[in-house]
Amino acid sequence: MQEIRRILLTGGGTAGHVNPALAIGSALDSGKTRFLFVGVRGRIEEQVVPREGMPIKYVRASGFPGTLSPALLPFLANLSIGILQSLWILYRFRPDVIVGTGGYVSAPIVMAAAVLRKLRLSHARVFIHEQNAVPGKLNQLMGRFADRILVTFPETLSFFPANGALAGYPLRRRIAAVGREEALKKIDFPIPEHRKVVLVFGGSQGSRTINRALVDALRHLLPFRDRLFIVHGTGLMKSRQYDASADTEARVRRLYEGEELGQIESFYLHRPYFYNIENLYAVSDLVIARAGAGSLNEISAMGLPALIIPKSNLPGNHQVMNARSMERAGGAEILYEQIAPVDGRLDEWLDGKALAEAIASLALDDDRLERLRHRSREFLNRDALGRIARIIRAEDAGETEAAPGAPLPGTGPEEERLPGNRALLLLLEKAERSHPHLYNPETVVGRPQDLEFYRNRASALLIHPSWPERNLGVKLLGLLHAREKAPALVTLLRERKQASLLKRCLGGDFEQVGFIRRNIVTALVRMDALDEGIEAALLEALGDPYYEVQAEAARAAAHFGSRLPSRERFVCALLENLKDRNLDVSTAAAEALGVIGGERDALPALLKLWDTRFWKMRAAALRGLYLLVERGEVSDPKALETEIPRFILTSTDFRPHFEIKSTYRRLMESLSRTKEKGLRP
Amino acid sequence: MIYLLGKYLHPNFEPFSFLRLVEYISARAIGAALTAIILTLALTPLVIRYLHRRGMVDQWRNTGVSSAFDKAGTPAMGGAIVAGCVLVSCLLWCNMSNLYLLAVLAGMVWFGGIGLVDDIAKTKARSGDGGMSETKKLLLQATFAAGLALFLASPWSPLPAGHAGAFYVPFVKAPLFASLWLYLPIVFFFVVVVGNAVNIADGMDGLAIVPSVFAIGVLGFFGYLLGNAIWARYLNYPFYPGTGELAVFASAFAGAGIGFLWFNAYPAQIFMGDTGSMAIGGSIAVLSVMLKQEALFLILGGLFVAEAATSQIQDKIGIRWLGRRIFMRAPLHHAMQHNGLAETKVVIRLWIVSGILALAALATLKLR
């Protein structure tokens, strides 16, 4: 196997892309190898790469906007310039191997290399390493130009059926396995004996959601203060909106005082950043972290049990998918962020109590910790770098067992891909349509972890800028019976931010458009959720400016019926809606009055409708009256018996009955029954 | 063919002197109508059984209306019978060298052909949504519209010299303007829009065919008057020699339409399908353009305009953009049904409305 002489590394934007590139570079280094790194000016590679003593050149590139939007133009302009620059760089450097580690930074080089290959001006082999479980859109595209896509997670192979290869994550520095005793000496703060040590960090910059939730969680962890010790890295983030360290300190001071503060300080410690994290790893019993590919693999390398809090709303939802990969392997448990009302607006949020419960139940359960520790250790492919180097060398020398482009054998099991949001909606709707009474999302979805994942994925849509996506999220939450998300839905329903003037002129009203509000009411009924907030929102919805919301709210009132504590106010609002000119609103109100109304209020109002012009209204009134009678709300049936025949029964509509079609159906049903009987022994 | 035969026989052979009747448009119009009606009445039952045997029946599509389910399994493509019978009847009774007529027949066949391909694709895909793509349809229609506009501007146009760019509106004697640059784009859009308008109205048994017969009948009457020097002068219209042939076409269409209604009346045994609605749309569009009565369509085809407008506003502005319904249901006939009218009642009421609109359109002949 000959040595590779010239290697071009590209990738960057964040440390998560630069470090794997450098790691692969060092694995391929034979001492005589020449390297060139190509990155983007002003990003992290500008500092890191020269420090490693590697020459670096810069190209123009910018992030892929993902959809058709005006932002596409600068992207394409930058990409074109970047490709021209890359052509020049490739022409001068003449690499044998190109390794891209993703991010938009590597796009120009990979595309330029593809152009040169087409023109037979370059022989360079192109490899891309994908760190995350879900590749970015740009990486998916570049997969077509590369000889081989090296992936970290087996789930990712389905994105690259032609040329994917399972490799694992190229961890840069081998984190020294420090002994516990030795580590304890090196740590500059005392860790009490016989406590479970929980290490919490949200990446080098820190995570506001995790930091705030952890401080909230401390109260619920107080009873366990003799058995836990929590070490919290808040992160280095210091921007105008958020200063991680100061905000955490202030939150602790605000929430706790006096004796409580002293108790908390006995088992909780926070620092902006830990420079020798391997020492802390060595003494930790549980790690709580974000789901970046780097963090997960570091945790796995140390063989630590983890509670993963993936960041939602990232491209391709990749942190969640990373976390699920480790969870499936049994090395971690997931705690999802919520989309919930924060100061009256929906935002990402993590409940302190839920976090506390997760910490307490996990950290104090030795069996579970042991199981997780065992599986966590197995999760990481420890030979990832070696494997990557072998694949690249073999392909460069043309020694692959498989033809170039064909999948490598033995690349691991391929997990079936989970349905996306839209496919899931169709699935659930179909299930509900076929068995409306037996419908239960748990039986449709199967695995409880999947159900939780779907619920969280759907709720992330609630803060999407485009309304059809938010609407999709609302529908999914209803069908998934995500009761815990009801407060978020109520917040959305009551939000009264106006739509643009143009839309209002044409009949629009609020940012949360009519369909969203209608579907929220439907969803609340579907999940059968009722509390004070929901009741108030439903009452408000009865007076919504959009008629479908009013009608749906009336149906919701009928659904909850006697469970509504403020029945009187609902009856009042429904009596108002009964006079509405819109038939959808008034008929729904009439039926709802039959369910929650009484003899004194609903009965006379419904009787008055005996001669209204529209038969649908009269029919609804009769249905309402029927419900009142059935509920035993009528004290004088005799009087009613003389009143009701006044109703005009003339109708302008009827249901056609097709004799031949019903006969056909009877025949087919009989046939299928016979068939079933015949199958029985 | 009967036209040519009669023309040849009656001056030359004494026993055939009665065939001078073919010189009269009225006589040929009656002949064409009777031929078309007899043909449709005779052929449709055969076609219905044929389509059932081939399994080429309408596919279920979720329109949100409960009755739609019961209609699955009714054959579509009845429009092919209508268009075919009109074509045969015209071959027999019309002067096939008349360019006005040829333009209208071309419109009917082109648009009907697009519809036919679409219908066949839908039955093959076994889904009401699996037809030809919207863009492809529109491109094919636009091709014809552009061709027609070019034809009108070319030296082969049958219109008298200097009339090509004139644009008339109802109730006004003089043309609004006479400029090819303004007129031809109008023709282009008119043909594309009207070509599709009937399609949307074709949502209930018998709903599209009767207003179409009214509209084409009125346009045929216009053709008869504009092609007659005395009537044209009396009504103060420009005299377009040859448009009388369109009256024969119109009566052939009326005959075929009534023959089709025989089977299409509620509950329908056959639907016209996209073949029919597009063939009719194309015919109305080209007829209006050749007679310079484009603006009249707003009155004459008011029903089609209302159906198309409600459906487009609801879908494009309301549902896709504003995130709400603007009408309780759309198009118009579904809105009426939603408010509690039976399908039969909706259809008959809309027939009455289209009849009134046709009379109003006729009134514009004199009210100028």
Task: For the structure shown, list the relevant keywords.
heterodimer, A: 681 residues, alpha/beta, Rossmann fold, 7-stranded parallel beta sheet, 6-stranded parallel beta sheet, 30 helices, B: 368 residues, mainly alpha, two-stranded antiparallel sheet, 15 helices, 1% strand
Structure in words:
The complex is a heterodimer of chains A (about 675) and B (about 375). With about 675 residues, chain A is α/β, with parallel strands linked by helices. In chain A, strands 3-2-1-4-5-6-7 form a 7-stranded parallel β-sheet, sandwiched between helices. Chain A is globular, with a radius of gyration of 32 Å. Chain B has about 375 residues and is mainly α. Chain B has one domain (about 1-60, about 70-165, about 190-295). Chain B has 15 helices and 2 strands. The longest helix of chain B is centred in the N-terminal third of the chain and has 29 residues, at about 25-55. In chain B, about 50% of the residues are buried. Chains A and B meet through helix 19 and helix 22 of A and helix 13 of B.
Question: Which secondary structure elements does this structure contain, and how are they paired or packed?
Answer:
The complex is a heterodimer of chains A (681) and B (368).
Chain A: E1 6-10, H1 15-28, E2 34-39, H2 45-51, E3 56-58, H3 72-93, E4 97-100, H4 107-118, E5 125-130, H5 137-142, E6 148-151, E7 164-166, H6 180-186, E8 196-201, H7 208-221, E9 228-233, H8 244-255, H9 258-265, E10 268-271, H10 277-283, E11 286-289, H11 293-302, E12 306-308, H12 318-328, E13 332-334, E14 338-342, E15 345-349, H13 352-363, H14 366-379, H15 384-396, H16 421-434, H17 441-445, H18 448-460, H19 467-479, H20 486-494, H21 501-505, H22 514-526, H23 532-541, H24 547-560, H25 567-578, H26 583-596, H27 602-607, H28 615-630, H29 637-643, H30 659-679
Parallel strand pairs in A: 1-2, 1-4, 2-3, 4-5, 5-6, 6-7, 8-9, 8-11, 9-10, 11-12, 12-13
Antiparallel strand pairs in A: 14-15
Helix pairs in contact in A: 1-15, 3-4, 6-10, 7-8, 7-13, 11-14, 16-19, 18-19, 19-22, 20-22, 20-23, 22-24, 24-26, 25-26, 26-28
Chain B: H1 2-12, H2 25-53, H3 67-70, H4 78-93, H5 99-125, H6 134-153, E1 166-167, E2 177-178, H7 180-201, H8 209-226, H9 229-235, H10 244-264, H11 273-290, H12 297-300, H13 302-322, H14 332-338, H15 343-363
